[in-house]
Amino acid sequence: MTLLRDAPATRPAVADPRRTRTRLTFLALTAALVVLALVAAGTGQLHVPPAEVLGSLLHRLGLDAGPVPTHPNGDATLWAIRFPRVAMAVLVGAALAAAGAVMQGVFGNPLAEPGVVGVSSGAALAASSTIVFGFTFLGGWTMAAFAFAGGLVAALLVYGLSRADGRTEVVTLVLTGVALNAFTGAGLAFLTFLGDQQAREQIVFWQLGSLNGVRWEHVAVVAPLVAVGLAGVLTLSRRLDLLALGDRAARHVGVDVERLRLVSVVLVALLTAAAVAFCGVIAFVGLVVPHLVRMTCGPGHRVLVPASALGGAVLLLAADLVARNAVPYADLPIGMLTSLVGSPFFFWLLRRSRRSAGSWA
């Protein structure tokens, strides 16, 4: 009896609210991604019911389950046109959102996004140069290769120019990015001036972003780059959490802050350049999604980065579905839609940050 009386009382298990919200968020995002993928693949001029889309997938995987498309061209339409586009939307959305989460962690600023280091503008300038000057030495891959290389070079240039005495200050990095974005903007204006009417239309359309015309060959190029980038940023998650304490505190616990910033910028450039190489500039995904995820899952990067990748895939898949079907027989630029949603959100974020800080002064 004495033993029973002295034994510590067993406390009932209490669920951690944040952990519960995180699990529910992952579950909801995964379910939304699956449903949206089935609906997006089956929606278009040739409608294929979601059950037949799922049946086509299962049969291609060797599972004799579910109905196959009844339309004679249904299966060919799914595998030649719709599935590559869905896969590319998932990859691009995941890459841009994960890159945005890392940028906000590296800069310690909720308004940071991949465009801050000039990746998108560098890619746009390089892609526009192939349009105006007619470079074709890599065949149909020339523009994508130039866009990818331009994005990487721009990001590394921003990092190199902002580095002084072996250190890189966040403010200098941001201001250098602003200067490079202004320079590439001027370069784009000059190329638009040089080009003929057709070239100007191509430059404008590329900057608006689109998933139209995506093929499996494009997906096969982008997928490994995005996979490497995502794996890389996931390995940085713990150090990004420590960096949130400040540079001095992070160094005190053994984080090489300079190396962390360099690796982060390179990985962000890789993810963003891979995303825009075939699809053009798609704005605001890297800004909006990490904030929405942070509201439910908290600021820890071990959860924030994968959840943002999942959320970005869902957002871009939904945006592409709207872009393809909002106007009959027309394909709206997806970058226009993301900016249409992202701009009001950015304004709200500015107002919210101002209220929390008291003032900008």
Give the arrangement of secondary structure elements.
Blueprint lengths: L1 H5 L10 H26 L7 H11 L13 H34 L11 H15 L8 H21 E2 L2 E2 L1 H25 L2 H12 L7 H20 L1 H7 L3 H6 L4 H23 L5 H13 L3 H25 L8 H24 L4
Antiparallel strand pairs: 1-2
Helix pairs in contact: 2-3, 2-4, 2-14, 4-9, 4-12, 4-13, 4-14, 5-6, 5-7, 5-8, 5-12, 6-7, 6-12, 9-12, 13-14
Subcellular location: Cell membrane
Family: Belongs to the binding-protein-dependent transport system permease family. FecCD subfamily.
GO cellular component, one term: plasma membrane
Q: TL;DR of this structure?
A:
The protein is mainly α and 361 residues long. The protein has 15 helices and two strands. The chain has a single domain, classed as ABC transporter involved in vitamin B12 uptake, BtuC.
Number of domain units? 1
| Low-confidence spans | 1-7
Radius of gyration: 23 Å
CATH architecture title: Orthogonal Bundle
GO molecular function, one term: transmembrane transporter activity
Protein name: Iron complex transport system permease protein
GO cellular component, one term: plasma membrane
Organism: Modestobacter versicolor
Key terms for this structure?
about 350 residues, mainly alpha, ABC transporter involved in vitamin B12 uptake, BtuC, globular, disordered N terminus
Describe the structure.
The chain is built from 15 helices and two strands. It has 361 residues and is mostly helical. β1 and β2 form a beta hairpin. The radius of gyration is 23 Å and the shape is globular. GO terms for molecular function: transmembrane transporter activity. Keywords: Cell membrane, Membrane, Transmembrane, Transmembrane helix, Transport. Its main location: membrane. This is Iron complex transport system permease protein.
